[in-house]
Structure formats: C-alpha cells, structure tokens
Amino acid sequence: MVYLFFAGHWLLSVLMQSLFQHRYAAHRMYVMGPRTERALHLLTWLLQGSSYLNPRAYAILHREHHAFSDGARDPHAPGSHTNAFSMMWSTKERYSDYAHDRRKPEARFDGGTPEWPALERVADSWPVRVLFGVLYGCFYLAFATHAWQLVLMLPFHFVMGPVHGAIVNWCGHKYGYRNFDNGDKSRNTLPFDFLTMGELFQNNHHKYAQSPDFAARWFEIDPGWQVLRLLAAARIVALRTPQRAEYPEPLRRAA
Ligand SMILES: [Zn+2]
Ligand SMILES: [Zn+2]
Fold first, then answer.
1. Total domains, the chain
2. What range does the domain containing 177 cover?
3. What are phi and psi of 100, to 5 degrees?
4. Which ligand ends up closest to the CA of 186?
C-alpha cells in the first residue's frame, strides 16, 4: 500500500509540475477558461501538498533557465556546482526571493502566470505545509509494514517537488544523449521518461521550447504530452503553440 502511495504521489506531483507550473505557467503552451484554471491550480496544490511550488516564482526562474541555459546566469546549471544539493539550495534561495517579492525579476521574465493570492498564502504557510506532512505520516503509520519505510520513504513525500527539480535540473543537463546542438549541455536522459513525465527530455525541450510535446523522435515517449493531448481532445484546454515551436527570440537573447 505504501508503495502505491509513494508511486502515486511521485507521478501525480511531477505531472502537475510539468503540466501546470512548467508547460502552462512558464511557457503558456495552452489556454483554458478561468474556472478550469482555478480547478487545475487547486488540484496542483492538493497533489503537491507540502512541497507545492508558486507558479509565478517557478515561471520566472524557469524562463531565466531557458535564456541563460548552462551559462553564468542560469539559476541551476550543474556545471556551476559540485553537487545537486548545492545547486538546489541556491535555486531554492532564488525561488524564495521571487515567491516572497524580495527580488525583482527582469520584466521580460515576469507576467502571464496564474494568480491566486489567497491560495498562495495558504499553500505557502508553514502550518499548512506541516499539516500535509502529518497526513503523509499518518498514512505511513496506518499502512507501513516495515520501519525502514518510515525512515527512508516518508521523508521523500515532504520534499517531493525539490527532489523532482534536482533530478530534472541535474540529470537533464548532465546525463543522456543529444538530438540537437543547442549550444548548452542539455540532454535527453530517458527515451521513455516514466520517471518525471517528460521533463527529462531537456535537450529536445531547449531546442523546441514552446512545443507541448517534449519528444522529438519516433522512439521517444513524453507521458506528460499524452495527458495534455487527452485534456485538449476533451476540450478542457486548448493548445496554443504547434509542435516544434522554438523559444521566442526576445526571451532567448541574453541581456
Ligand atoms: Zn533545462
Ligand atoms: Zn521549459
């Protein structure tokens, strides 16, 4: 039971990060009505729980990443850090500055992100983040069959979002193969990205940053795109950008 809970939380949390924070908030690859946006926003919070990410702060950081990929101003370039922890720590600091309005981003990286201040206030408050942690703990206390599950598996639920971020940002710019020369170190880590719902096609994604499908070759499968495709077929969302669409020039150009 705890394995199912772990796999479910892992996949749904990263799926929402890919669909909502990444493909919607940061890249605006699709549009939807205001009520649908609120429903998806709420669902993202509930599924990401204790490690929910503010869509605006995520989008600013991510747009900077595209503009400066693997350069000195990339907020999370593996080449600038000795390990994934130090990379994610400095990413977290920068993220918090944007989430709490302590740092002003360049205007070209800001705007066009879903706004719901009341939900952000609740989601970002410590009591609420801790409450999610307590709920995960209760589930483990009820269903865990071995003590090591509480010690080794439970902590992952508290920091699911940053763990996904560390895997994608570290491995996606370090390990795997390349389809395109993007002038950076982006790689495709897995041809079938069952681990992070498509996020590990970094090489394809940096080439065609606005394409809602992160797969680019016949053997590659992007599970996040398959879900997005279903949502579009059901008319819950409408796709804005065609496949193989590149990143807009004003955003790409370094300052
Ligand atoms: Zn990248
Ligand atoms: Zn992106």
1. 1
2. 2-252
3. -110, 20
4. 1
